[in-house]
# Entry
Amino acid sequence: MPKIALLSSTAPEALQAKATFEALYPTVSPKDADILVALGGDGFMLETMHAHLERPIPIFGIHCGSVGFLMNEFSPQDLMARLEKAKPTTLYPLEMTVHQKNGTPVTALAFNEVSLLRETRQACKIQITVDEVVRLNELICDGVLVATPAGSTAYNLSAHGPIVPLGAPLLALTPISPFRPHRWRGALLPEGAHITFTVLDPLKRPVSAVADFTEVRDVTSVSVRQIQDHPATLLFDHEHNLEERILREQFLT
# Structure
């Protein structure tokens, strides 16, 4: 029987769930566990993934929050049987390297998306380069993002970007409220693409960059690429695995 560690968000619902599971199952500390059981929402799942980057331990999420796309259904019964039958899904992060007007470059990882956002009332102007070829000289917009397949149903979908099937070797490049060119709706790029965003007129039109929940303000350029280091393995109930959820999302009306 696998050794499990219970982690929960600070939400009352998650703390109550943690107490319920602790009364039913033996637990160990995270450093001694074979599987982490994360109780909360998608935000807490992302926090758990980032907190355990150095030790690639499988994570089984249980929904006790507001959004639970990356989580399994809450049910205190038969947890060990569910873990035994769970289907693993390995996610690879994006690496964001940010340059500012002053200071050293900042690097951060994102399992969902890297987004650039305007900081003021004025739209930002961004040049987009893919693999050292300028593909868009000037995008006037509220922002732009790069999403992984797992993240394509999050902010990317809200910005009218495409849903990317899990396992597809693609990244979604999606503008946020584009003004010029007004017909451009983004692109699908190979997962090995190296994308560089250059902020035009950063003094008058400042831009921030966000990787999951790491934000850097007043950036001048941002480079994004997917890396094979620091993968995260999530476990899902077999009948409600992440591949099925992403496929099903495309047929919602």
Summary: The CA atoms of residues 186 and 218 lie 24 Å apart. The chain has two domains: 4-91+230-249, 94-226.
